[in-house]
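User: tokens in, sequence out, please.
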């Protein structure tokens, strides 16, 4: 029997949040199934508990499911400070669901009256210090599921993903399986799990599972692209640093973990420890591109490769992968790059260094 979703979920949940602020508890609990018609705004010093809760984006909506409440001020260049201490915690089965794909893609975003791509993040935090997201399931994300820009002192823990696995070939045949050799057929492209973007620091990411159409965890200096220039916070450093990524057990069509900076965003002091490729048992995909991918040879994200003063102190260890390459280093000079205990199986290459081709 199909689940029945109540309409007006965003308005209802926003009222619960308002009441939690007014009564001084600074907490709200949501249970049940709701369609979300617009972004739910989260204030500082607030805990949202999702208890046996299924939230699904309404059809045709171009908006996030959750944003920090100062994010809009940053977008509109109005006065506004950072948010602090925001918690979303699942109890029982807590699901954030992108629902039906709305057709917005990196190819058409911002054109012909369409909004920028970041409206398709399920959760978008910009300029948040102190946050915790844990014990949730993300389904059918329309782009990056959970996205963080200029955020710090955060924990992302025990999060499971299941991307849309629809592929449509040139003859219109629909399958629910993603093949490595035919990415053009994928309906929802670049459906990452977690993206930690420019200006983020001191974040722990751990116990991440499931299937992602693109990267499961991406640490990317991409402020120049995808509309994220709108979030530039000039008084804060660009550096992405002191990020710990542990126990990633996923089937990822692109990379289980991706580390990338091009065009001058410093990326340093990153630990990746424990990446396990589960694609052999996945009903959604065949094989991924990389277990851990460092850098890129294509200038999709900036105008040049990084220097050793921009990308340094990167440790990748305890990786087991059947992807095309278990660990891959591409482009630029990375100072103090360590690959340790990289295990390839099912024909994968353990470590491939392609920097000389860039």
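Assistant: Sequence out:
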């Amino acid at each position: 029997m199909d689940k029945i979703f109540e309409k007006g979920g965003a308005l209802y949940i926003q009222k619960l949040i308002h009441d939690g602020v007014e009564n001084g508890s600074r907490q709200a609990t949501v249970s049940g199934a709701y369609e979300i018609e617009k972004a739910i705004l989260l204030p500082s010093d607030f805990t949202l508990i999702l208890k046996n809760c299924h939230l699904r984006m309404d059809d045709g909506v171009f908006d996030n499911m959750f944003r920090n409440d100062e994010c809009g001020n940053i977008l509109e260049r109005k006065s506004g400070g950072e948010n602090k201490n925001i918690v979303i915690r699942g109890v029982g089965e807590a699901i954030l669901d992108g629902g039906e794909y709305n057709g917005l893609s990196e190819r058409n975003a911002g054109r012909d009256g369409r909004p920028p791509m970041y409206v398709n993040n399920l959760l978008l935090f910009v300029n948040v210090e102190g946050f915790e997201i844990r014990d949730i399931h993300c389904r059918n994300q329309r782009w990056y599921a959970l996205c963080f820009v200029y955020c710090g002192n955060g924990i992302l823990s025990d999060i499971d993903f299941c991307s849309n696995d629809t592929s449509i070939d040139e003859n219109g045949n629909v399958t629910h399986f993603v093949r490595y050799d035919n990415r053009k057929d994928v309906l929802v492209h670049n459906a990452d799990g977690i993206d930690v973007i420019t200006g983020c620091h001191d974040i722990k990411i751990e116990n991440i599972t499931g299937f992602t159409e693109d990267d499961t965890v991406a640490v990317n200096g991409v402020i120049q692209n995808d509309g994220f220039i709108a979030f530039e916070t000039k008084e804060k450093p660009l550096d992405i640093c002191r990020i710990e990524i542990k126990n990633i057990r996923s089937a990822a069509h692109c990379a289980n973990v991706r580390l990338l900076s091009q065009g001058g965003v410093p990326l340093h002091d990153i630990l990746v420890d424990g990446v396990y490729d589960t694609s052999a048992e996945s009903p959604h995909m065949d094989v991924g591109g990389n277990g851990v991918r460092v850098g890129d040879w294509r200038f999709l994200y900036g105008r040049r490769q990084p220097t050793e003063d921009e990308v340094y102190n990167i440790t990748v260890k305890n990786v087991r992968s059947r992807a095309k390459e278990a660990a891959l280093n591409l482009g630029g000079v990375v100072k103090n790059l360590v690959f340790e205990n990289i295990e390839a199986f099912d024909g994968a290459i353990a470590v491939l260094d392609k920097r000389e081709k860039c």
